[in-house]
Amino acid sequence: MRTHSSNKPKTLVPKGVATFLPEGVLLRRKIERTVFSGFFRAGYQEVITPLFEYLDVFSQTVGDDLLDRAYKFVDRATGRIMVIRPDVTPQIARMAATWLVNRPRPHRLCYSATLFRHAEEYAGQEREILQMGAEHIGDGDAQDDADMILLAIETLQKLKIKSKIVLGQTAFIRGILKPFEKDPILFRKILSAVARKEILHLAAILKDAQVAESSKKQVLALPGLLGGKEVLKTAEALAQNHLCVAGLKRLRDVVDILTQKGLKDCLLIDLSEVRGFDYYTGIVFEIFADGVNVELGGGGRYDHLMEKFGAPCPAIGFALNIEQIQRVKEQTP
Question: What is the model's pTM?
Fold first, then answer.
């Protein structure tokens, strides 16, 4: 149960943060124990990352949008800019690339951490976000992708939450958008319009782009690539380079594995999904509470992130938004 502050200055709580009364805390702790028990049974070990970091750790690993939303301050001891963590995955990538680099892989690491991201008050978004997540570092095949998605689904099942998984493939999108990479501003405009499925706006952006008409048609097709496994056949007709072909093959392999596990009805394919495009390299997925359309978390493959810390290695992970899970639990019997 959350409390709501009055408008008196002495009792006013900042927007985007929460206060929990005892009954709310009991539910939250129960959720945390259930999530961790699922992670531990799957062989994951808990790690703890710093609450704040030097800006460099995130400036080379996350996109400008997330970095702009990070809370920054100056370290009195060094004069360097620091940030309160807006994300955990880069921290764990650094951990695996440095302190764990000489230990045998794969590393199966999990965590519970509070993130802080600036959000405009009118947006209705949280600024303080409790995440629990798992990162599998050291393996890079389709079975590992499927296993991570299965872990997310099974964790929510233990919480008695039925989930829907939206699957995307950033490698496919990168392949389609490759002709536009030379113009970063145009590239970002196109990516944003694709993510929002703004077809008319996308067409307007592409109208004056100096690329082949076939490339424009491929991009305009992206927002419509939404549905079941049949979407993959439609996408194959657009796959004209190695990135697209390899990306679709991996996605098909993962869908086949999950279908064999009886999860066909839980899956939705969305090839315009650009979640975390700046560091995800392959499969991406978002997790929704089935029936109430509330996003509970997501993740994906980030095979190039550890290169930033000098130790290239494939990896995949996901995070659950505990605040959103608690809301769903409070609203359902």
Answer: 0.91
